[in-house]
Request: fold
Amino acid sequence: MCDLPEARRLKVLLAEDARFARHLLQRVLAGWGYEVVLAEDGEQAWRVLQGPDAPSIALLDWMMPGLDGLEVCRKVRQAGREPYTYIILLTGRDRQQDVVEGLAAGADDYLRKPFDNLELEARIRTGRRIAELHGELIAAREALREQATTDSLTGLANRRTILETLGRELERCRRLATACAIVFVDLDHFKHVNDTHGHPAGDEVLRQAASTMRAILRPYDLVGRYGGEEFVVVLPDCDAAGARAAGERLRASVAGTAISVGGVSLRVTCSLGIAVGDSRNGWDRDRLLNAADAAMYSAKRAGRDRIVVAGEDEGTAADTVEAKPAGPAPAGRRRGSRPGSAR
Ligand SMILES: [Mg+2]
Reply:
């Protein structure tokens, strides 16, 4: 009767303590193409619904030993897990207040025994529509979350995620009085890549540089695209010496990786600026971002393809760090007026 091929993939939980009724219904449901998961009492039903890959539709007998169908309903709704479980209560009770009680416990629908199989099938189809819509909503929400937190070109964290994560990590490190390093990584002469090879080639360079960096960082480090050809790496529980070592690995791996675009093999280098939040420098996010950014500019001025650690190298690197207003300015606008911004 149910000839939709995708119906075979849909799991239905059937919780019924009466053996004969359970087997009868199982055969009917299997005949419609559903994958039937059986439970002989409420406890079993609850375990199935909590488990991985739980059925999205549950037929629960009301009267069962242990947990009854109503209690299973309440527990499922209380747990509020996703994806949604569409619950149809099956019962011999037929007083109006029973119906109300069943729906109040979180059941979506209600069938009085004995019921007609065609009616059951129609109700399961309704449940299936609801479950599918819910699944689509979850997928849409996840896609939005992904878009809101990820840089679409490189797949790295975007600026907003970097700022949020950095704020959180610095606060955590402040409480524990441990160090947290911030690394600004800016690709050198990137404008030249775009001008010479075109923007698609520039995009490919950004993508490959991003994946090179991600590959050599620790799983708990965060690397994100801050804007343009600028990346920020957050290294929790990392002091200046550790950050310098990590920065050197990043620098060397970017410089040592040939990037092939349209049959041409390109080499790019990057300049890195490091600032460390610790008891000496404090853990203020915007101050540290500015310090790392300024250190990165010192590295540019000192000849590029190198690392400058704020407060350690800058006196010798090239020049003094400019005073900058607090708070990072939006990407793209902030360096237009700077001298020597060929990057
Ligand atoms: Mg029963």
